[in-house]
From TrEMBL:
Protein name, UniProt field: DUS-like FMN-binding domain-containing protein
InterPro entries listed in its UniProt record: Aldolase_TIM, DUS-like_FMN-bd
Gene3D superfamilies: Aldolase class I
Ranges where the DUS-like FMN-binding domain occurs: 5-134
Superkingdom, taxonomy of origin: Eukaryota
Entry keyword set: NAD, NADP
Species this chain originates from: Amorphochlora amoebiformis
Entry GO MF terms: tRNA dihydrouridine synthase activity
């Protein structure tokens, strides 16, 4: 299990007692399904009112391999709080497939939405590219059309 689960529980419990807003948590899956379920159940018991689950382990690169949606499905069956699925969502079809497979209450996207801000409108399905030239061109076009500080997005375009 993750280091210091007692400390995490204390933090979530105290936050949920003191704050006037719900406490939401986001986790990555742990090395085993049993550990992941135990950690998620602990979060719920401590006062977490919504759990977002990135379906990859921390040790794995967040850009490689498939997300483990089956773990999210198991969590959804065990938890009473809403569960948000995250991982391998690059377009609307991916989001729909994720929801169908996981039975999660919602889906979120990180890198997919950076590549395609209209991801959930069904506007194309741009898969991530490893080609730096394409990323640089996309970055240039997007910053011209939608000005913002380069530091806010450059890490996502040019590597972490």
């Amino acid at each position: 299990m993750t280091p210091l689960p007692g400390l995490v529980s204390d933090i979530i419990r105290k936050a949920s007692e003191e704050l006037k807003v719900p406490v939401w948590c986001k986790i990555r899956i742990l090395p085993t399904l049993k550990e992941t379920i135990a950690f998620a159940v602990m979060l719920e018991a401590s006062g977490c009112s919504l759990l977002a689950v990135h379906a990859r382990q921390r040790e794995r690169s967040h850009h490689s391999g498939s997300a483990d949606w089956s773990t999210i499905r198991h969590l959804k069956k065990v938890l009473e709080i809403p569960v948000v699925a995250n991982g391998n969502v690059q377009c609307l079809t991916d989001a729909q497939n994720c929801l169908k497979h996981t039975e999660a209450d919602a889906v979120m996207s990180a890198n997919g939405i950076l590549a395609n801000p209209k991801i959930f409108s069904g506007f194309g399905c741009r898969r991530q590219t490893k080609h730096k030239d394409n990323d640089e061109k996309s970055f240039e076009v997007n910053t011209i059309q939608h000005p913002m500080r380069e530091s806010l997005v450059s890490a996502h375009c040019f590597g972490h």
